[in-house]
Structure formats: C-alpha cells, structure tokens
Amino acid sequence: MAARPEPAREQPRDPRSRLLTALVLIAAAAVAVVMVITAIPSGGETRLPEVTPPPTVAGTSRPPSSPATTPAPR
Fold first, then answer.
1. Torsion angle, CA of 51/68/62/73, rounded to 10 degrees?
2. Are 56 and 63 in contact (CB under 8 A)?
3. Long-range contacts of 37-46 (CB under 8 A, 24+ apart)
4. Per-block average pLDDT, block size 10, for the chain (74 residues)?
5. For the whole model, what pTM was predicted?
6. DSSP single-letter state for residue 58
C-alpha cells in the first residue's frame, strides 16, 4: 500500500500581522469616509462654479473678439 500524504497544515498567523491588517483596513475605511463626506456638498444641492466674463481690453467696453468669430481673410 502507498502511504497517503499528510494534509498541509496552515501556519498559525502572527497576532501582530492580524493587528497590522486590521489597522490598515480601518485607516483605509476612515480615508474613504472622509473623502465621501468632503465630496458631497452640505444641503445636497449641486452648484456650478461661478463663471466670470473675460476681462475687457483697456479703452474698450467690449471683450476682445475670439478667433472663432472673426471672419477669415480672403
């Protein structure tokens, strides 16, 4: 008869490695919670950033024309 191999036994984990794993998971969860809390504005309303018009050129009352609206020379 052939001898049956003994099943491999798991090494007991070091208590320090379990503690380190738990601390890393707790720190990651805390960072995730802070990121979610700071990403959601209070009051639940979404506000778009304020858009200011481009500055006017000195001596004029209109902003400079953009290249897209200037007719191309022929």
1. 170
2. yes
3. none
4. 70 83 97 88 68 69 60 62
5. 0.41
6. T
